[in-house]
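User: My instructor asked us to take a sequence, write out its structure as tokens, and then describe one feature of it. I'm not sure where to start. Here is the sequence I was given:
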Amino acid sequence: MFQLILTTPEGRRFDAAQRVTTLSWSGSIRQVSRQVRFGLVLPRDGSLPAIPCEVGTAVQLLVDGESRFMGSIVTRERGTGEDTAEFTALDRGFYLAGNEGWFVFSGQTPEKAVQTVCQGFGIPVGQLAPTGVAVSRKYPGVALSRIVDSLYTLAAEQNGKRYLARFDGAGALDVVEKPTAAALEIAPGKNLQTLRVSEDISHLQNSVAIYTDSGQLVRTVEEAESVARYGSLQRVVTQRKNGDAGAEAKGILEDNGPQQVLTAECLGNPLLVTGSAVILRDNAAGAAGLCWIDADTHTWKNGQYFCRLTLNFKNKMNETTAGRENK
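Assistant: Let's start with the prediction itself. The structure tokens for your sequence are:
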């Protein structure tokens, strides 16, 4: 069961759930904003009370009493003579992506730098994953979302971990370390309805050449089996002075190997969201094991709740390069 709370700028609250025709709540590792799309019955003849639904109206989605989304309406669409209207709401990632800033960080941890970025723009902060590394970077006029992702990408290159930026149900920014074990299971006869499997090597990188900034080859790291099977597809990285690019090279190989992407249709569960790890059990489809959710869409329609998930056997993050080195 869901509630859709619409709040006017003056503070008047309305639960519009009974007027919703269909509602979807979705997210992806490629976007910091989660979104809610919904249709509302809005008779033109006044047979039902008016409810606030202008662009900018605050939106909160609760599932089984727990807040899962807090944002505002950014698009509204309605046709001539129609008694329904369609809306899109984005969470506060809208402000992280829509604002640019100018920042210089010298020897700061990503979590401290992100705190500074958000404070400067009044963006609430929840949990920021500790990284154990220090970075130096200059961001002259860069979108805040790209700053956050690139700071944690720099950390991932050094510690080999994977991170995800997202906003929680109270509207605060969390940057979490993606799990390495699953607490959820997807299986036929339990919650899995259909599963589609696709394989792709169009973005394959199976060799990484590490060079110094003066152009001297330090070493080459490669997936020998992949090179023998598909041929060599090389990426070049520059090793920082007194540093070791081994973790970065390993991350590139892990993230750019042969892709096996799975699309699952499941019974609805609000815990099945982007960044979560799940155990997939479907031996009949030739796909089973530990997976990560790269994208999710939860849909409520005609009294039913189901979700569509994009799964990946590789633990990936939204790697972003932005700004320039601050020497």
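For the description part of your assignment, you could build on this observation: Residues 171 and 286 are 39 Å apart (CA to CA). Try explaining in your own words what that tells you about the chain.
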